[in-house]
Amino acid sequence: MARKKIALIGAGMIGGTLAHLAAQRELGDIVLFDIAEGIPQGKALDLSQCGPIERFDAKITGTNDYADIAGADVVIVTAGVPRKPGMSRDDLLGINLKVMKAVGAGIKEHCPDAFVICITNPLDAMVWALREFSGLPHNKVVGMAGVLDSARFATFLAQEFNVSVRDVNAFVLGGHGDTMVPVTSYTTISGIPVDDLVKMGRSTKERIDEIVKRTRGGGGEIVALLKTGSAYYAPATSAIAMAEAYLGDQKRVLPCAVYVEGKYGLDGLYVGVPVVIGADGAEEVIEITLDDEARQNLQVSVDAVKELLVACRQIDGSLS
Ligand code: A3D
Predict the structure, then answer these.
(1) Among 109, 197, 133, 107, which Cα is nearest to 160's?
(2) Do 188 and 169 form a contact (C-beta atoms < 8 A)?
(3) Which residues are the active-site ones (predicted)?
């Protein structure tokens, strides 16, 4: 069987980390694409030289030519600019929308059968725009955010309860922004809902509220520390989990930004919800029952995403 081909659009901090992780896991041969000349080629060469030590056979190449992504099975998009301290994700909209237009055209021409994972911010608007520009079916274009946001929530909860992160199953819904919705009623530690652990006196509502707040601001906390860019290790590993679910037809239930039509009261919008990821891409959105607070919070998040789509349409008249 021929090796799979993984195209990484954007060879910056996340792109380079993605290439390393994909090679270590031997997901397939890897093509790193970037508009900056030399960067994808240099990173590809450097990463290839990890092979003899880490004992992977993945072929890694760098390019500035979209023709080289031809036939890719998976495309992960990080092209664009990241946040700097003081910026919101939404401040990136104007620049990154233009980038999505070029990337969408490249995918449409060279690998229209790929499974596409968008990471570029502001995530929910950029994944929508990328789908529009590429013309791929909605189930084949998804956004990475929920896996990362849930991992951040899980990390903080494991610290709070002093338990292994492996036993925390955290649940975050909504857009990837300050309005995201960590849902404590569906968040468990080995099946025990966090709300029950609070009732048992193992934490307090105030402390859990603080953790929810910290999760919402989790990206900004890292931006403020790094000063020169945003998080990249955990975003990359989150997208790799999604790519593996698709390539291995794993039917994993992952929170991803997917096109939701008819569930959660939504009529065609990209937003973060639990979805089954398998060989058909985003195979089935799972609609959970939300309490009033979570439902209201989700509506705030959905409204924030909708506002961004209006802004996208104002910038680029070709978007319907
Ligand atoms: P960075 O290290 O700057 O890499 C971005 C790369 O994109 C650079 O190498 C650029 O040269 C390249 N690029 C710019 N324009 C184009 C273009 N038209 N075509 C191809 N390549 C281009 O950023 P990063 O890797 O740290 O972050 C990438 C994106 O991911 C940013 O938009 C971040 O905001 C976003 N991000 C999202 C999350 C989510 O959870 C959704 C988390 C962290 C970062």
Answers:
(1) 197
(2) yes
(3) 176
From the CB of residue 113, how many other CB atoms can be counted at a distance below 10 Å? Answer: 10
Give, using CA atoms, the residue closest to atom 8 of ligand 1: 12
ipTM of the complex: 0.99
The string of pLDDT tens digits covering residues 143-202 is 999 999 999 999 999 999 999 999 999 989 998 888 899 999 899 999 999 999 999 999
Report the alpha-carbon distance of residue 156 to residue 92 in Å, rounded.
Answer: 27
- Of all protein residues, the one whose alpha carbon is nearest to atom 26 of ligand 1 is 13
Q: Render pLDDT for 266-312 as a digit per residue (tens, 0 to 9).
A: 999 999 999 999 999 999 999 999 989 889 989 999 999 999 999 99
User: Tokens 């969408």 belong to which residue?
Assistant: 104
Q: Quick check: 210 and 293 in contact, CB under 8 A? A: no
Strand, coil or helix: 149: helix
Q: Is 176 in the pocket of ligand 1 (CB under 6 A)?
A: yes
Instruction: Answer whether 17 contacts ligand 1 (Cβ < 6 A).
Output: no
Atom 18 of ligand 1, residue of closest alpha carbon: 99
Ligand 1 site, residue 80, Cβ cutoff 6 A:
yes
> Ligand 1 pocket: which of 66, 91, 119, 153 to mutate (most atoms <8 Å of CB)?
119
Closest by Cα among 228, 146, 152 to 180: 146
Give residue 15 CA to ligand 1 midpoint distance, Å.
8
